[in-house]
Amino acid sequence: MPCARMPRTTMDTETVILDAASALLEAQGPEGLTTRAVCEAAGIKSPTLYHHFGDKDGLERALIRHGLADFMRRKQRAPASADPLDQLRDGWDVAVEFALKRPALHALLSHHVLARPEVLADSYALMHARVQRLVDMGRFRAPVDAAALAVWAASQGVVSLLHRGVSRKEVVAVSGLLFDAVVEKLSQR
After folding, report:
1. CB neighbours of 53 closer than 8 A, spacing ≥ 6?
2. Assuming Cys at both sites, which of 82, 109, 140, 144 could form a disulfide with 186, CB separation 3.0 to 4.6 Å?
3. What is the C-alpha to C-alpha distance for residues 189 and 3, in angstroms, rounded to an integer?
4. Per-residue model confidence (pLDDT) at position 9
5. What is the pLDDT of residues 33-56, one digit of tens each?
6. Residue 62 contacts by C-beta under 8 Å, 6 or more apart in sequence?
7. CATH number listed for the domain at residues 1-54
8. CA-wise closest residue to 112 among 30, 42, 46, 172
9. Architecture of domain 64-187 in this structure
10. DSSP for 32-52, written as a single string
11. Per-residue pLDDT, 155
12. What are phi and psi of 177, to 5 degrees?
């Protein structure tokens, strides 16, 4: 007796659509992220996409939320070390790795952050807390807010290189150099 196909739940349908949209975005860039292409890749009709996301902008916002949730899960994982400097480095590396592995999503996210900087508030807060611990321990000598902004600006600068056509290998190399330089400067009196 053949198994009856179970109807998709709303969450399953949204996941299928987001997975298809994400794959299209990474394969073809923002130009390939059309509602028609997403519907075709997800095996749905356009009313289904519009029902779940409203329009293309809603789909993009959902892609960003979905990508950010994945990013934050990775960033919040407890690092092997209890050392806040190792935790800061791990968070930096996760941010750079995310941009390297999902450059089109990162570019879309960067574009949306210009209009809504609060989108990255959780990520900034996590990094700020790690910097606060380093300041409290006396390992960073700079004021906490200035130190956190320096780390944030430097990490954003590294990933911006990727969008300027710098090779992955060079981005990784610069990332390590810049992290070490920022830490050294923040550690000085």
Report:
1. 14, 17, 59, 62
2. 140
3. 70
4. 63
5. 999 999 999 999 999 999 999 999
6. 14, 18, 53
7. 1.10.10.60
8. 30
9. Orthogonal Bundle (1.10)
10. G--HHHHHHHHT--HHHHHHH
11. 94
12. -65, -45
186: which residues sit within 8 A by CB, 6+ positions away? 134, 140, 141, 142, 147, 150, 151
- DSSP symbol at 119: G
CA gap 98, 153 in Å, rounded: 16
Specify the higher pLDDT residue, 8 or 37. Answer: 37
Q: Quick check: 1 pLDDT over 50? A: no
Residue-wise pLDDT tens digits, 124-166: 999 999 999 999 999 999 999 999 999 999 999 999 998 889 9
Q: Token digits for 142?
A: 């700079």
The helix-helix angle for 144-163 and 103-115 (nearest 10°) equals 130
A 10 A CB-CB count for 177 gives: 11
Question: Could you tell me if 18 and 27 are in contact, meaning their C-beta atoms sit under 8 angstroms apart?
Answer: no
User: What sign results for the dihedral spanned by CA atoms 96, 102, 103, 104?
Assistant: negative
If we measure between CA atoms, which residue out of 104, 94, 88 comes closest to residue 162? 104
What are the extents of the domains in the chain? 1-54, 64-187
To 10 degrees, what angle do helices 10-28 and 35-42 make?
Answer: 120
What pLDDT does 144 receive?
97
φ, ψ at 55 (rounded to 5°): -160, -175
The answer to whether the beta carbons of residues 54 and 14 sit under 8 Å apart is no
